[in-house]
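Sample A.
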Amino acid sequence: MRRPTLEAVAARAGVSRATASRVVNGQTTVAPHIRDAVQRAIDELGYVPNSAARSLVTQRTDSVALVVSEPGTRVFSEDPLFSTAIRSASMELEAINKQVVLMLASSPKSHARVERYISGGHVDGVMLLSMHGADPLPSALSRLRVPVVSYGRPAVPVDIPFVDNDNVGGAEAGVRHLVEAGRRRIATIAGPQDMIAGQDRLTGYRNILRDSDRRSIVAVGDFTRESGAVAMRQLLGDDPGLDAVFVANDLMAVGALQSLRQAGRRVPDDVAVVGFDDIEAAKYTEPPLTTLRHPVTEQAAAMVRLLLNLFEGGPTDPIILPTELVVRESA
């Protein structure tokens, strides 16, 4: 069977080819009854627009790049942040007939590849996820004059709209919960210090300890479960008398719980534990994990809406979403 043409759609709808083209390309200068007639003809004939020809007319690709500054081993790992953010962004874009082009950028070579692809006009905009301090992409992409938004506040001084959650306030709430429970020697397993989330959550921890006349006890992980286990062993070696730990994400908290169990420490009797993110696994740790809910799905959806505002000239002020303390048995 021959592929239906735009001319056939126009003939079936009783309109000119130019009018049918305007409907297909989403222009609003067509009367509603004519638009309905063209849409019926499209449905009846099974017409599918030629994407290359359509792009020439509209100057749009209907594709958006989601650039993740991590290697594949991290993105496709047990950390649900990546899969949740990718799924949420994809669903938001799919609802308006746009698609996501997932690109990983964790090396100079991949940075150059991403920059070439985007400068080639293959996407209408870019969403950045999991940026690190030395990441050159935010500055490079802003010079290309392509619409760019960020999941999280950029770690470099660049004028890019962003959506974040209240990392400082969330950490403060978690550590305040430990202070109010009477814990005296409160340690933290901080996240990577080249990432804004890692920096801000450490800041929140230090704010509360400073105000409550307690000293900081810090180990640093990389947001993986193994790093949490290693950091917890380090903390126990440095201060065997610690009675609480605030962990900058739930995956590291899972590792910390494992190390505490292996060291014979009871949770929460000997050491209380608070995490951050409220991943699904937090409900099923032993004991269930007290944590801060990080609204990943809502944050990714808000990032898409912010990018659409950029397309349409709408407001692009930073968006900060609240976190919520979820109290379970670990603290």
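Sample B.
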Amino acid sequence: QTNSPTVDQIRARGYVICGSGHGTTGFSAPDKDGNWKGLDVDTCRAIAIAVLGDASKTRFVPLTGQQRLTALQTGQIDVLPRTTSWTLRRDANGINFTYPNYYEYDAFMVRKDLGITQTKDMNGATICVQTGSTNEVTVADLSRKFKLGLKTVLFDNVAASRQAFFSGRCDGLITDASALAAVRATQAQNPDDYVIFPASGHSEALTPSVRHGDDRWFDIVKWVIQVPIAAEDMGITQANVDDMLKSDDPRIARFLGTEPGNGKALGLDERWAYNIVKQLGNYGEIFERNVGKNSPMKLERGMNRLYRDGGLMYPYVFN
């Protein structure tokens, strides 16, 4: 028994249940063999490694934008790592956001031949939007702010909104810029026919969340998300993590559990952080594999660089 009811439940059932997207390439989507892949999938796998020692002890429940928070609140899933923006009203509504695993900005995609390259030019445009997303509010706000008279066409899932956009039902499609890049690369007949530009100019922190009421589980998920970021900051990779076990740097010894204490504090195996890096790599490796240069999406690190490199990924202290 730990002092976390969620962890006790996960250990009794033998796997972690994570909320996922409906085929969001780069974040959570099954590959052609049915294996789930993506940055949010790796976050879920990291949690499974920490609690159960094994990345494969996971189950993914595809959820729409409207279903996702309810599924977390009602206990249908253990954790929600699903491209969900951290907002005040969501936070106040029975869930706890942990730490961001990806920083993002919202964007519009439009046909190039419309000649539109910025939000201010979108007078009277119709926009395909998924219900239950922050984008619904963004479109209304932009329309009001710039007096654009934007019209929204609402869909209850991502696939339907994308399909409608490509069939000409709307002038624009709004969602996270990375998702639009994925859609353009994988679903457009000719990707060069479409342009993507920032919608509101604001950034959002996509952040895994847990439900209220289990503080120890909240702690565990927070620190699991920190592991790949801290590993990258300390120069620890999937390839060199075994050599790093011999390091005489006290920070690295504490982090990898050769100097015990961190595992005990969270009710986990002392090698929990080592196991995450050994099975999944550091944040840079996870990013490049799923959405960066080693992926079809080829996204720049941008805001998701480490803090020391000018980004927003900041490593906290593992002691």
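B remarks: The chain has two domains: 5-101+207-309, 104-202. The two ends are 24 Å apart (CA to CA).
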